Amino acid sequence: MFRLNLKIAWRNLWKNKGYTLINILGLSIGMASCILIFIFIRYQLSFDENFKNESRIYRVITSWTAPDSFFESPGTAKPLPPAMRNDFRQQFDKVAAIQGGGGIIKVKDALGKEGIKTAEDVHYAEPDFFEIFNFKWLEGNPRQSLSQPNTVVLSDEMANKLFGDWHKAVGQSISFKNELELKVTGIIEKTPENSSFPLKIIISYKTFEKQAGPSLTNWSSVSSSSECYVLLKDGVSIEDVNKSIPQFINKYYQKGNISKEGHRFQPLRDIHYNEALGNFANKVISKKELYGLAIIGVFLLLTACINFINLATAQAVSRSKEVGVRKVMGSLRRQLIIQFLTETLIITVLSLLLGCVLTEVALPGMQSLFKDHISFSIIEHPIILVFILVLVIVVSFLAGFYPAMVMSGYSPALAIKNKITANAAGLSLRKILVVVQFAITIMLIIGTLVVLRQMRYLREKPLGFVPTAVALIDVPSDSMAITRYHTLQDQLNKVPGVLSSSYCSAAPSSDFNDEYNFKYNSTVQANFQANTKTGDENYFKTFGLEIIAGKGLAKSDTVKDFVVNETLLKKLNVVNYNEAIGKTIRVRGKTGIIVGVVKDFNNKSLHEPISPIILNSDKESYTTIAIKLDRKSILPAMQAIEKTWNKLLPEYVYGSNFMDDKISSYYQTEKIMGALFKVFAGVIIFISFIGLFGLISFVATQRTREVAIRKVLGASTIELVKMLNGSFLLMVFIANLVAWPLAYLFVSKWLATFSYRIDVNVWPFISAMIISMTITLITVSIRSYRAAVANTIDALKYE
């Protein structure tokens, strides 16, 4: 029976090749988009899922609460891990510290000469870290390999890079930061790409403790690169642990601070999805984005299914005789439903095959957009096959069930007499579906226009400094490098195309934002924290910062003068900025005089407001030299800068990036959103309008005689086109009215995530209406015109 149904279904589909092609094309594009979205979401949801005790692993988060602010960091004070290990021994199986860092790695060749010199990220980890996280050890074990100072464990990939073969690495030595000789004592398997812990070089934590000095006991100093992880004991809930946190805070933290410290525990599976806290891999995507992608995928599939339903129900009248004959011959309604669902299944399977091809074609583009490895391997990820099978069943049911019910329900007597007509309910449903389909399309058009406008606003908004043509070069901060700072800067300033240069801890806008309590005018304890930055006397000139009161920083290697921004003085209720000049500030244990006020500049992304900022000079905290370049000679200047660097600092590795690129990286998520909206809005527009073309083609065919009679009675071609177009334009107009409030809610909520944003005005909505109405008019008019100019004799010769 199934073979017979298949044969009949194939004949019917072949008979209506045009409509079959439209359905396959629409469904295949929709299914390909859904598959792409699914494999991307599957990849993102797979982060950190393979650790044995993932449900019991937490990261300790530090927070500071002030009267008008709240700030969180993934970092912890360095004495916290041993304190928690002691105070929470009844609740935690393991507590481990891990510290991020970086430096120059050198390896000598067989002759004792320098063979490899490379700048790499490193991590200092306690042995317990590898008992919390079950990384695969190829050689060694955490208790033996990381228990002593000056020992290091490598990933097999890094060991291959440094020694050619990881099997030969254990027992060898590497030089780190030109200061330490580290012995390789273990090898771990390369961490997968879907991990928040890209561990390649793991140095024993005791090595870090030897270098850290007083900070090991300092509870007020917190760096975001100092993280702590805990493993709960079986049967212990995190709520039980949280009850003991206030007691822990009272025991170890100084009382009376304006900003109150606090701690919470972040689940391991939340680390990849928390944009505010980040992770060592710098791979973060919010679950809101994943939900948004999933909704777009549903919209795409729904649009394709609506196409199918509209065309199938429109064709139903033309197949009434077939239904009547089959019923007279004894077919049951159930058998007819199965027959029509079989046709839908064939179209869905053909669409799936084409969709898989389209997925493979589009996959490199999606990998490039997200900069992630996205695999379409069913063998590697069987869940993809499950999704595809579910997709076929769902699409077949959604697209085929209603048309099958309509066609199988025809009266055989009326069907054989050819007296079946499109009932009002069927027409109404088609109109509703067209309205829904175009409402979805219009919402995406509006969303795309708003996202693109906001992105343009972010690119063009003045930031309070000039990021253009500023190169940022990381500088080493060891004692040997510091002695060469002045020589290096003098030589770089002589390079043709270099306008100015400045040593600093961070650029005006940076990922590195340290917040500290401070005292103003000696005695006034501020009720908020300030963002601190260090830079030399050329900092303001190099970045184009404007001094609006007093002067900039004087040439000095130590903390002596301070410059503050407008926001800090406003929060201190200082109206006349000149009154602040000469007042003292004490921050980070150092006291100095305010010598100037800098005009407000954005120190973070435009998602966030401007912070209160304190700037000063401090040679020991410099990590970067910023170089302002002449735009006309950037390339030769950068080549000369690298040459000068290698001449003066041959022991170190040169690396640079541009301020523009750093600013741009803040909005990577928005860029991706903009690209996705453009692509998927285009896809939905295409699906909608090929469906619209198929529908108007069928309507024109059904009304051929009516058009011919009207033409004989004197109707003009324009009048006939207007008659055929009218209902479609009305439906698209109604779709705009439906889409506008929904789109407004969406874009308003999205824009609310930015502290600086465009105003939502009427133009994106008007533009979406013009675009949708214009494309509808063109699409429908092409087919309507063909029907209107057809030879009337062909339509009426048998009447």
UniProtKB/TrEMBL annotation:
Subcellular location per UniProt equals: Cell membrane
Which one Pfam family would you cite for this protein? FtsX
Q: Which PROSITE patterns match?
A: PROKAR_LIPOPROTEIN (PS51257)
Q: Which domain of life is it from?
A: Bacteria
Is rRNA processing one of the keywords UniProt gives this record?
no
Q: What is this protein called?
A: ABC transporter permease
Q: Which InterPro entries does UniProt cross-reference here? A: ABC3_permease_C (IPR003838), MacB_PCD (IPR025857), Macrolide_Exporter_MacB (IPR050250)
- The UniProt record lists the MacB-like periplasmic core domain at 20-246, 494-630
Enumerate the UniProt keywords alphabetically.
Cell membrane, Membrane, Transmembrane, Transmembrane helix
Q: How does it sit in the membrane?
A: Multi-pass membrane protein
Q: Does the keyword Ligase apply?
A: no
Q: Where is the ABC3 transporter permease C-terminal domain?
A: 295-412, 679-788
Query: Which organism is this protein's natural source?
Result: Pedobacter vanadiisoli
Q: Where are the transmembrane segments?
A: 20-41, 290-317, 337-363, 383-402, 432-452, 675-700, 728-748, 760-782
